[in-house]
Design brief:
10 strands, 12 helices, two-stranded antiparallel sheet, TIM Barrel, 291 residues, alpha/beta
Length: 291
Amino acid sequence: MFKKSCVALITPMKNGSLDEAAFKSFVDWQIEQGTDGLVPCGTTGESPTLSHSEHKNVTEWCIDVAGGRVPVMAGCGSNSTAEAVELTKHAASAGADAVLVVTPYYNKPTQEGLFQHFKAVHDCADIPVYIYNIPGRSIVDMSVETMAQLAELPRIVGVKDATADLSRPLQTRQAIKSDFCQLSGEDATAIAFLAAGGVGCISVTANIAPKLCADMHDAWVAGDISTVMEIQDKLQPIHDAMFIESSPGPVKYGAELLGFCAAETRLPLCEISDASKLAVKNALKTAGLIE
């Protein structure tokens, strides 16, 4: 089971191409800083604009650098079921510990369509599958009932919940067996999500503040609520700044400020505004991450 502080990894780029050296160095740093799980090729990793070969390369690089030190949940989502199946088969053969599959965006499937999509992914390879429910980006919202139906399948083991609905983990916990792994997909409500039955967070902020995020989750597990609240207060300005424009523009700029990679993204995402850069810079300064 994935738990505590997991990172939705950015994909460093340079002059239009993937920056393999920067990515590998970044993954290694994440592990050194205490990150508990790695999630390459999600939305934060700009998966919609990666070619199939690039997507597979990033997954393989992440698994190779991790070297079994922490688990890897490979992003394999697509609005094409056939593509999600292909990526899932690759992740399983490459040695990923699990896959993360987003609800199909744009197509706007029915709940039955969602069930059949995830069942096809489940059936294609012997690897645990996590549902990524993010209605703000994919338009569709998987119902608790559909998720409970999917959870009856042996390899559907958890969810990354980015609904920002804090009643959802409570409803899910009541509807599904207790070992179903609920991970927050929204940094700002991560602690409230834990209190409602979650076990961790797949975080954007962890890209640039991995130690703070890991320490906060460790404190939660230890029952040290005063430390949890202290770190949460320190992280909140960063959470806000990371979504001042479409992600991952702000977080990539944050990574550039820390010296890990260029802030480069692929169109249709573009360079963030000067005002947004200032907000990101101030948030990092407030948290003590840069001078």
